[in-house]
Amino acid sequence: MKKNLTQLSSRLTMALMLFTSVSISKAESLKPQAERFKVTLADIENGSFTVNPPIPADGMVEAGTEITVTAKPDSGYSLDVIYYTVKGGMWGTTSYEFFDKTSKITVEKDMTLGATFIPSSLINNLEIKRDIVFAKPGVKTLKYDVYSPKGAKNLPIIVIIHGGGWSSNNEDIMRGLAWELTKDNQYVVASVDYRWINKGDGDAQPNYMHQLLEDVFGAIAHIQEHAAAYGGDPNRMAVTGDSAGGHLSAAAAVFAPQIGSGGYGKSGNYEFMPTYLPRGKSADQVQVQITNAIKAAAPSYGVFDVNPLNQFIEQTEVAYRDGLSPIKAVPAASQREVPHFLVRGTEDGLIPHTAVQAYTDKLKGAGQRAEYLQVEGAGHAFFDWKPDARTRATFAKYGVPYAAKMKEFFDSVFY
Description:
The protein is of the alpha/beta class. It has 2 domains: 83 residues; 290 residues, Rossmann fold (3-Layer(aba) Sandwich), CATH 3.40.50. The protein is built from 9 helices and 18 strands. A hairpin with a 2-residue loop joins strand 14 and strand 15. The longest helix is centred in the N-terminal third of the chain and has 29 residues. The protein is globular.
């Protein structure tokens, strides 16, 4: 009898364990599975990087996982950036870049993860100051980067204004051009950011195009104020930029005399109030300083007449649009000389040759010096620098040689 009871108890215990196991398995199967994203490791050259925790063989990583990426350049090379690229954004993909050799990244989307390395000779003699804040007129903090040759003192300053349809990118995208223009240690280069047009930054009220130019003037005023700390001469400056930045650089050169406090489009005034003013200085004083300082402009494949840009500018007033169109306000060289260097790729599908030629003709008609070079075989945005292999290859093929020609132009002005 006792033996039978023992056997029964044993069977009940096994049944209970089996039931519990099945119940737990069923509960686990009903439990929501954590979302996972695919992390693809990019092929890299001239260095290596490690990821901790390591990416699984199938690349699938649980959402919210924080990974630490450490990059190591090969001999003779330096880290450019650690980056990851995701789908989305104005150009189909968006890259996020990190300049520290060890960076933490949270996995929140499918991404391609990598690092880029550059010859150390490009930056060995540079002091690079990043993310210098000059204003915060809206949601986005406005900043710029400075590339100064070591020991620089009273060098001319070149201000670069990035492109991106007035609604994407930031100052980082022009670092390749900055490296090229600082070769031979003859210039301090500052690459500046500005607000994105309309509500691209997340502002409750839209940013209008004239405000973007006011940001550029604010950045220039801040650079002038701190020029000595960068080794630059605040009284000898040039402006350059590509695409939307080509427009803004040409506009900065041409419309500098219209810096003022009267308001843009108010009471018949079309004056630009810089987003930043040095303490104790008026807009009128800054206008004189910037106007006298800008000695040259090199707007690349830019827009010089904004009148057709209905997709970007909601204002329909002709005066508003003319006031932002450099081709409408080219000064006579007898009053103010602003030599221009212009380039455009022959395969550029966004900026037609006729538009650049029309601006060139207007400059020459006003007695201004104007050089216009067409880059055979190049498309749009060949001065951009991004971590993807295609953009870097395009910069190497077209950006590097034509940056050298741009520098020759600046040399002829300042040296």
